[in-house]
């Protein structure tokens, strides 16, 4: 029985160490949360592609945009170090320490899928996706008002011309009537 005891203690010790190692390695992984996976925006609006990550080491964050026009790398940065923004997005992107980015003045070409990758220096990765829909502002109501205003202006211009003609005709008729009346009164 004495010989079994040291072997059992060694086995428990190894098992305990393996469990501790597994727990530590699981906690040193990368976690990524995307609180708003769908974003609706209108043209010329600013949008925030919000994420939050956590990891034990230094993380590298990379954002890519995929649409019907192709895939474009937007930005890549290492927390606390360099930021590499694509020339296409140079004046339109702001990066945040939590991994989020802000796109300013979005256009129709900005609609699509945004992929974020958080890579830890030990090799673990986390991935997230945000779908962005961009809509044009439709000025149907404004167009209707403009057409109605133009129509009413044209009708009022025609009515003013008609009233001017009626006024001139009335003055001519009054002159002729007064000439006839003065001619009749002279004969009497």
UniProtKB/TrEMBL annotation:
Q: Which residues form the signal peptide?
A: 1-29
- Principal subcellular localisation of the protein: membrane
What would be one Gene Ontology cellular-component term for the protein? dendrite
| One family name in Pfam for this protein | V-set
Q: Which SMART domains match?
A: IG (SM00409)
Using the record's annotation, list all stretches that form the Immunoglobulin domain. Answer: 36-135
Coiled-coil intervals, chain numbering: none
> What protein am I looking at?
V-set and transmembrane domain containing 5
Q: Can you name the source organism?
A: Serinus canaria
Q: Which domain of life is it from?
A: Eukaryota
**GO biological process: any one?**
protein homooligomerization
Where are the bilayer-spanning segments?
A: 142-166
Keyword annotations from UniProtKB, A to Z: Glycoprotein, Membrane, Signal, Transmembrane, Transmembrane helix
What does the UniProt entry say about where the protein is found? Answer: Membrane
């Amino acid at each position: 029985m004495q010989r079994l005891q040291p072997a059992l203690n060694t086995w428990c010790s190894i098992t305990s160490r393996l469990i501790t190692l597994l727990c530590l390695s699981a906690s040193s992984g990368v976690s990524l949360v995307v609180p708003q996976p769908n974003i609706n925006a209108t043209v010329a609006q600013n949008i925030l592609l919000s994420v939050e990550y956590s990891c034990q080491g230094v993380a590298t964050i990379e954002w890519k945009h995929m649409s019907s026009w192709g895939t474009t790398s937007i930005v890549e940065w290492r927390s606390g170090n360099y930021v590499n923004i694509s020339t296409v997005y140079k004046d339109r992107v702001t990066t945040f320490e939590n991994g989020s980015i802000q796109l300013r003045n979005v256009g129709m070409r900005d609609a699509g899928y945004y992929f974020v990758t958080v890579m830890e220096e030990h090799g673990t990765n986390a991935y997230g996706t945000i779908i962005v829909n961009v809509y044009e502002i439709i000025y149907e109501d404004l167009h209707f008002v403009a057409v109605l205003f133009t129509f009413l202006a044209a009708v009022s211009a025609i009515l003013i011309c008609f009233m001017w003609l009626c006024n001139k005709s009335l003055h001519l008729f009054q002159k002729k009537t007064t000439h006839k009346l003065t001619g009749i009164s002279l004969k009497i």
